[in-house]
Each structure stands twice: as structure tokens, then as C-alpha cells.
Amino acid sequence: MNKKGFTLIEIIIVIVILGVLASLAVPKITGQMEATRGSEAMQFFGTLRRAATDCLAMANGTAASCVTMGQLGVSMPTTGQGASFSYSAAADSPAANQIQFKATRTVGGVANAICMVVTGDGAGSVTSVAYGVTPATSPFASIVNRANSSVGIAADGCANATALATALQ
Q1: Vertex 51: Cα angle to 158 and 160 (nearest 5)
Q2: What percent of the chain has pLDDT over 70?
Q3: Which residues have C-beta within 8 Å of that of residue 100, sequence separation ≥ 6?
Q4: Residue 3 lies in a domain
């Protein structure tokens, strides 16, 4: 008698092996998805940086005149429109002519923030741009470190991005 086919044990072993492989792949895939969402924030930060550069030039370098989206001439994406982040802007230190932009997103119950600090020279030109991420273990840290790689410093935290932007002047 010639039996063809697989035994129940063989099928169960294959299912277990596939389950183990899937359990290894899923965290990598979800981490990559968050990194992709982080690139959305960096792309919007590029728009904000160009708008802040124009605004600082028109406002003679006064950062306090360039902190609202209306002053920048930029419409803020909202989560209802498919945005993955909530965005905000503030004059971090108007005396130092700095504007801080922040994108926040909750991942796994932890609030994550990507920050960009634009520093003007007080005469209408942008002298430095630095990025930061909070917490340091954020899935967006690699994106921020790549953005800061031109200066060779990784800003860990929004306050450090402000200090880095000041140091780069």
C-alpha cells in the first residue's frame, strides 16, 4: 500500500515554524511603518523651514512674528485629513530668534515628539536648523539623526535641539 501525503505531526511542525518566522517579522514591519510616518513629519518640517525662512526675511528676523501657521502662510495638516502627527509652533526664545516646530504622535501608549528649531540671525536670514526627538527610544530617532548628520550631532530631545541650533549659529 502506497500512502501519499503528510502526517498530522508534519503539518503541525510546519505551522509552528511559520508562526515563529511571522512573530520575528511583525515587529520589524510595524517599526518600518512608524519610520515611514516619521518621514511625513520631516517632509512637513521642510515646508515649515522654507516658510520660516521667508517669514524671517519679511519680518527682519523677528521670530515672534513667525510662529503661527497664518504668519507662515502654511496650512496645518490635521489628523482628520490623514496626517499622522499633531503639529505646533512656538517662538522658543524670541531673543535668540528661534522658532520651534513640534510634531507629536503616540506610539504604543508613549507620546513621541519630533522637533525642529530654526534660528535666525536677527537680520532676516536663517543661520541654523536642528532637529530633536523625544524619547530617545522613539521609532523616529533614526530619521532625526539622519537629518542632523550634516553637523555630526544627534539631538536627543527638543531642548537639546534648541541648544544645538544655538551652538550652530
Answers
A1: 15
A2: 77
A3: 89, 90, 91, 92, 115, 116, 117, 158, 161, 162
A4: no
Distance of alpha carbon 50 from its chain centroid, rounded? 17
Residue 34 lies in a domain: yes
For residue 1, being part of any structural domain is answered with no
Q: What does DSSP say about strands 110-120 and 86-93: parallel, antiparallel, or unpaired?
A: unpaired
CA distances from 100 to 54, 72, 130 (A): 16, 13, 10
For the chain, the domain total comes to: 1
pTM higher than the cut 0.85? no
Strand order in the sheet with 126-134: 86-93, 98-107, 110-120, 126-134
Residue 67: which domain range? 8-167
pLDDT band (50, 70, 90) for residue 112 = confident
The residue-averaged pLDDT of 101-109 equals: 85
